[in-house]
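tool_log.txt
---
The assistant was asked to compare two proteins side by side. It first ran the structure predictor on the initial sequence, then on the second. Raw inputs and outputs are pasted verbatim so the downstream comparison step can read them without reformatting.
(1)
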Amino acid sequence: MRKSPKYSPEVRERLVRLVVEQRQEHPSQWATVVSVAGKAGMTPQTLLNWVKQHERDTGERAGLTSEEASRIKELERENRELRKANEILKLASAFFAQAELDRRLK
């Protein structure tokens, strides 16, 4: 299975701008996306996803903005790390408590 090429942010921005600018020339957003994607040599669905994200970022469409999504992802990562650290501390505490009890009995 081939991995699709990565597009630079500049290329993404330019293609999304083309879709927005050419929207009036086509009967639907999908027709515009298909037209621009064909000229760019990419799949229309990828370009449509970019356009939808652009609309969310500019407030034209409901949903999480890119900034909000990245912030949530960062907080979830931090939460996972804190849970791991907490579990390690609990295990260490139990280990040392048991060692302290064993030492007193001798």
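(2)
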Amino acid sequence: MTKLFSLEGRSALITGGSRGIGRMIAAGYLRQGARVYISARKAAACDATAAELSALGRCVSLPADVSTAAGIEGLVADYLEHESSLDILVNNAGAAWGAPFDEFPESGWDKVVDLNMKTPFFLTQALHGLLVAGARDRPAKVINIASIDGQSVNPMETYPYAASKAGLIHLTKRMALRLIHDNIVVSGIAPGAFASDMNRDARDHADTVAERIPSKRIGSDEDMAGAAIYLASRAGDYVVGHTLTVDGGVNLAR
């Protein structure tokens, strides 16, 4: 049982790993013994986070813009300079855009839907061979970070964000059924309120936000790390295609 949640000797690649939920997961994986590679569009931020997290274990910065095919190709090439296989992929990079219905721009729609739903598919596709190589002795893992806004409706006019996260939850199911044949387990996490640059209300007004949460608090780093460790470890090997809701009860309360 002591090894049930261990990630000792495992390699993990986390997109959007320089801040917020990605950073929480990276820190958790490092504490469980994984070798962690984080990617983010802004190289300086990615490098700085990797340097800070290296106090916990091996953490390598691989800056890339995974919203483009060229960025995905470059990230895979950079990862191959360090590893010949991949055990855990966390598709966390994402974007949000809010605007009134009558004014919502196509550029905002495309940016959000492409990064939140298209990128996880094509990055996983590009890394498929490395994941297969990592799945020889035990399952490799792909974890897609969705949102409770893809499960229930919030009052904000973030149309493509909600739609893309709902799509990602369904895509997780479809990918899971295909990739399990390669001993790759695909699952997801739907976070609620966690402090981040994307969720500034939770970051800047935690007490106010907590009043609307049945658990009466926003999520902590440990809450997110715990869920991600569970799915990535031996403990989560039999969780196929399911998206785990980590929100203190908000989705049910809605």
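---
observation on (2): The chain has one domain: 11-253. The first strand starts at residue 11 and ends at 15.
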